[in-house]
Amino acid sequence: MFKKIFIWFFGSITVLLVCLPLLHATFFRLHDFVHAARIIEIVRGLSDGYFPVRWSENFGYGFGMPLFEFYAPLPYYTGAFFYFLGFNAVTSIKFLYIICSVLTFLGMYKLASRLFGQAGGVLSAVALTMAPYRAVNLYVRGAVSEAWGIMALPWILLGMVQIIRKEKSGWLSLLFGLIVLLLSHNITSLLFIPFSILFGLGYWLIYLLKHSYKQSFIQKIKPIITLGLLYSLGVGLSAFYIFPAFLEKDFTKVNQIFGGYFAYSNHFLYVRQFFTPNWGYGGSVWGPDDGISFFLGYGQIIGLFFVLFWFCKELLRRMKMLILRRNGIQLVTYRPQPFYLPLLCLSLMILSSAMTLLKSKPIWDVLPFMVTVQFPWRWLSVIIIFLALLVGMGSTYIHQRFLRYIYVVVLSLVIISTSFSYFRPESYLKSNDDYYYTDETRIRTQLSAILPDYIPKQMSEEYFFVPTGQVFWKNPEDTEFKVMTDKVQEKVVEVLVSQPTQLEFGIADYPGWTVLIDGQPTTKIVSKIGNIAVKVPVGKHVVSVVFKETPIRQMSDGISIACLALLFGIFALYRNQQRNEHRA
Fold it and tell me: Residue 2: which pLDDT band, with cuts at 50, 70 and 90?
């Protein structure tokens, strides 16, 4: 009973303090305040029977762009779910914040409690949920997708630990974490997945050191094979999004945002920035005087130094015992302290920290895909995971139960009391409509300039500030027309022309858009500004412009459907096995 009260108390107070600003009547200004518009654009696509939603018709100055083919959609599908339930867009965003914080705490607690016990699990969960970098994402940058990506990371590691330990529910944890990560934030996926593989291999070797004598060779390598298959299944389930996002990005202007201010060379950190408790609501700049904080947290740093002290003490003790053994001196019996797991987590934290520093620039220059990361300090998403594990690991060095709980309580309270003030906005809005609006016209005219990343690359910039939102770019002269269908992914018009006429639709051309006249495919023309045009012969015709799947998207959708069927089969076998064990 005491343990449950202990866990619920710290879980509730941590999540409550992180989410307390959400109880205010209005929302707050963030660097990225486009969340409501993204949600409503997903809602419009789903309302038109369009899934997966790839095209946004109002961004791109009303000419549209394939926003959700590249911008990880899961948080916004979730926001759309709450919107369909009757909540407004801002309340839906608040639900995204709450879900993120609850599952971050729960995932890290489940992971760390398996490694260090329940006391260590609570401490690690508090350290991650109250990490200042999470506050930067939630209340300064407004990086909801990145916060959701961080939320998925402990679940991935949890699944790996469970599988290596041969726990039956490990595959569910791992798949859940992988799918959430891959569909929430591309960059966090790029940074974390290699580190998760290193963690999995390291933990597997640590586990073998204790249990290899009990296992055959097949039993030893079975967890690695299982992890490989589950990673493949996770990628397959997310294929409908991640493959087109990677293979079709060159059809957009996205490569233009990787230079200038957004070049990674402008945003490397200094080591002291991890330990400087400055706070601000500004931006990232060259040098150590950024307007935002990259502080690791007072309590987290205290916990880290405690673990480093015990780790170094254990290292020296092991070196001493090795020297004594080599000299033939009888060894004194001693109780071994945790060594290999802290070594693994510490190594991964140091490596990810090093990637934020200017000295790592040669590595960034060699790896061309790193240009998409833009900000080296995004490695903090990885750093805070292994830091939180190290903080919780400190409890394992205290063997007396009462003192262990005292340590966990005191350090948790230090983390909470010194970090909760970061989890608040700079100021609240007088009205949510100042920034978080769902009106189509305002999205075209006021938000398109903020999110130009995925405008099709052939679109002429001289027309960017002339929003359309009309079926036709310009009403054709001497042409009678009636709009029969006006959906996100389909426009159908009935036209009557007295002479051969070129009609220009107010839709940016992009692979997948297909034009039909009277139900028959016809040649699609790209106009001088980059939108879709078609030549219509004399007479009365039905002209359709339909957004279809390209071969890449069809293949990706097929892979996801096949993997989903496989997942249902695995789940059915799992449930059947559980029933049989219960009967036995």
Answer: low
Assess whether pLDDT exceeds 60 at residue 58: yes
- Answer yes or no: is pLDDT of 330 > 70: no
Q: Which domain holds residue 498?
A: 479-548
Compute the radius of gyration of the chain from its Cα atoms: 27
Q: Integer distance in angstroms from the first to the last C-alpha of the chain?
A: 31
In the chain, the number of structural domains is 2
| Tokens of residue 97, six digits | 């914040």
The pLDDT value recorded for residue 549 is 92
Structure tokens at 456: 């099709």
If we measure between CA atoms, which residue out of 477, 508, 479 comes closest to residue 491? Answer: 508
Calculate the alpha carbon distances from 377 to 36, 67, 268, 360 in Å. Answer: 26, 25, 7, 12
Confidence at 371, pLDDT banded by 50, 70, 90: confident
What percent of the chain is helix, strand and coil (3-state, nearest 5)? Answer: 60, 10, 30
More confident residue, 332 or 277: 277
Quote the tokens at residue 524.
Answer: 């699609």
HSE (side-chain half, CA atoms, 13 Å) at 341: 23
pLDDT for res 220: 82
Element (H, E) at 503: strand 501-508
Would you say residue 262 lies in a domain? yes
Closest to 108 in 3D by CA, of 321, 355, 389 = 389
Distance CA 4, CA 26 (A): 35
E-assigned strand segments in 347-474: none
CB-CB contact of 307 with 342 (8 Å): yes
Residues 427 and 503 in one domain: no
Q: Which of 343, 424, 402, 396 is nearest to 19 (CA)?
A: 424
The answer to whether 171 and 226 have CB atoms below 8 angstroms apart is yes
Residue 68's Cβ-count burial label (10 Å; 0-12, 13-18, 19+) is buried
Give the integer Cα–Cα distance in Å for 523 and 532: 10
Distances 402 to 10, 110, 277, 336, 395 between C-alpha atoms, Å:
17, 22, 32, 20, 11
Q: Is the pTM of this model over 0.70?
A: yes
pLDDT at 502: 85
Has residue 296 been placed in a domain? yes
